[in-house]
Amino acid sequence: METQETGHNYIYFLQYNTKLPLGYFHLAEGLSSLGITLLAIRPQDFLNIQDGKRKFVMSLAHDIQSQQALLDCKKKFLDFGVQSGNLIHLHFSSFGEAPPTAGISSARRPGGQYHFFALPLTIVRACKQAAVVYYKEKAKRESWPGGKRPKLSLGHLAKN
Fold first, then answer.
1. Which residue in 76, 109, 120, 140 is a FRET match for 86, CA 20 to 30 A apart?
2. CATH for 3-159?
3. Per-position DSSP letters for 18-36, written without gaps between them
């Protein structure tokens, strides 16, 4: 996650062409009110910043061109990143859930790295659902994996 060094919460938004969709600006505004920055990034630039840390990536497929571009990204890197656990994919689409690419056994893992949201969806609800996924995953990563330490009372030691 991008929060360790900078203290900021980032979700990367895949930008398929030079012009950002109108939905990006609404999502960015809604997520900023929830403490998350939405960063638009081209797929080739996203591949260049891969450093082995877990990243959140959001995709929006609202027309045929964006759906085709998304399927191309899935084939190139998204499915593999989700399968390996390095990506958490928030997929907003009006076309339905895209099947995993051939050669990838399943884009879903028990950890929940792939999240599909069907459009139409209000901006407020989309932002809330993305924020819930983001903050749940953040809390999961920051919690101690070993559970709680056992408590040993002094009274128990005095009896022995």
1. 120
2. 3.40.50.2300
3. SSPPHHHHHHHHHHHTTT-
For the chain, how long is the longest CA-to-CA vector? 74
Count CB-CB contacts under 10 A for residue 34: 14
- Residues whose CB falls within 8 Å of the CB of residue 120, separated by 6 or more in sequence, listed in order: 94
Closest CA to 54 of 130, 142, 159: 142
Total-model pTM = 0.78
How far is residue 73's CA from residue 63's CA, in Å, rounded to a whole number?
15
Query: Do 38 and 30 form a contact (C-beta atoms < 8 A)?
Result: no
CA 73 to chain CA centroid, nearest Å = 15
Q: What is the DSSP letter of 77?
A: I
Tens-place pLDDT, residues 111-151:
568 898 998 889 999 999 999 999 998 887 776 666 666 66
Q: Where are the domains of the chain?
A: 3-159
